[in-house]
Amino acid sequence: MNTGAQNSEDTAAPLLRSDAERNRARVMSAARTVFRRDGLGASMSSVAREAGVGIATLFRRFPKKEDLVAAVFADRMDAYANAVDVALDDPDPWHGLAGFIETVCGMQAADYGFADVLTMTFPTANALEERRNQAYEAVVQLIGRAKAAGRLREDFTPEDLVLVHMANAGVVNATGDAAPEAWKRVVALMLQSFEAPARGPLPASPEPRALYKAMLRASQARSASAGPGKNG
Amino acid sequence: MNTGAQNSEDTAAPLLRSDAERNRARVMSAARTVFRRDGLGASMSSVAREAGVGIATLFRRFPKKEDLVAAVFADRMDAYANAVDVALDDPDPWHGLAGFIETVCGMQAADYGFADVLTMTFPTANALEERRNQAYEAVVQLIGRAKAAGRLREDFTPEDLVLVHMANAGVVNATGDAAPEAWKRVVALMLQSFEAPARGPLPASPEPRALYKAMLRASQARSASAGPGKNG
Q1: To the nearest whole percent, how much of chain B has pLDDT over 70?
Q2: The pTM of the whole model exceeds 0.90
Q3: B contacts of A205 (beta carbons < 8 Å)
Q4: Mean residue pLDDT across chain A
Q5: Do the chains contact at A207 and B173, CB–CB below 8 Å?
Q6: Distance between CA B169 and CA A58 in Å, rounded?
């Protein structure tokens, strides 16, 4: 049957499909609300409560919190990948990179949950990780172009982008609605220090492996509130 | 009686004093451990558990979590005030300010709890607030000197210091032990963009009042896990 079902995981009988899809849409919408409000630290039970479904139903559909996260942020990852494409198309490589950083930091500011997605990693959420890895390759190109044009400091690394997102998440989380534009100033300051020529040397960039470990650790700490999902 | 008791709040009979003091020291040490490990979001009950005292005992001595926070971080506030003095004594105003920012960000990195203290505000913890306000006046002087020497960008505001601490807390919390030096690179980047001449204009600095509201909001959110202290 070629019904264009979004997800091959669905084992419900065909007659139940539209019910299942309605259910899924309700859960996704609730999860989007809860993650936007509370970040990825939100528990599976608060998502179930918001959706008005039982916790068992939620876990049947999304056995791990990472699966739910991946499904909810699929469109955000699209927007992210799109921002990379826009940047690569920019004839001015520095303008492209700076605009990309501003855009993505703005996405973080608009959505606490997405701020977490960018600075954590969910090894079991394969779809999300794969998308992010593809985007990463494109970002590496973006950085190379800006350096080749002499507009980005030579010692800039892809890890610096992760650090910008971590710093931005700190500002966004701390200021919230009270000072909703504050992050723009911090990002502008960071961009000014990225621009070539560098004003001075910097302490070493973290090793990619160490940063990956940090992102993993952060997501595990957050998943601690996910409940039974950890053990399937 | 001139016993040099640290705290006039102590209403225990003189004979009980040394017991009470031992108890207090035990609670303080436990709170230090718990706040360092979990930040100020840690609950009063986890402090009581770590100290091996009943929750009622803990709340009798520290009716509000803010009181406990103020007591625990009194020495940290001393170190902070001391760092300001060192900076004001530096014959090179820029070197003094940059060193101060590095020192305080290092204190944040060494102690998650202190990272929270710098970016939250506890209106009922008068002692802590008073110390912080004194330090603030000195920091304003520090900024004025660095600008007068032409080494700090003219549009720098005291609020930018708070933003640095928020950004630094974001990096410190996200990287933890996995990349314990990463914050140094972010702080160095921020310092390079603070140095005069500015590379370009910046989005407006948040209003002091808005930032104060943000700090208040953050501490209230964290205090939500403090239990009965809110109404105590």
Answers
A1: 80
A2: no
A3: 185
A4: 82
A5: no
A6: 34
